[in-house]
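Can anyone check this?
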Amino acid sequence: MDHKGLVREVAERTGLAREESADITWAVLEGLADQLSHGEARRLAIELPHMSALLQARRRRRKEAHPVRLHHFVGDVARRTGLTYEDARAGAGAVLAALRETLSVEEYRHLTAQLPGEYAGLVEAA
C-alpha cells in the first residue's frame, strides 16, 4: 500500500478529512518509529518504501525498543495533529489496522511485539 492508499484507508476507517488523515498517519508512524528498535524500524522501512525516509529519520540510535504507554502515545499524536484525544486514538487504531492488512503476518507481529500489549485494543476498535 502506498502513502495515498494508507491515508485513504485511515480516512475511511475514521471518517476524518483527508488532510487530517494524512496528518495522523504521519504522526502515528513517527511515534511508532520512535518506539521501535533500530532493526525493527529498518524492517518496517523496507516493508513501506514510501515511508522509508520518515522511518529512517525518526528511529532512535539505540538497539532496543523504547515502548511508550498507550495514553502517552495517543496524547502525543493528539498534540502533533491538533485533533482531540478521541480522534487521535481512533486514527492511531486505523493506522495500525491498515498496517496489519498491509504487512505480512510475520512483519506485523514483529512490529507489535515491541509495543505494549494495550495497543492491540486500538486495532480491534478500528
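Reply from J.R.: I decoded it. The CA atoms of residues 33 and 59 lie 5 Å apart.
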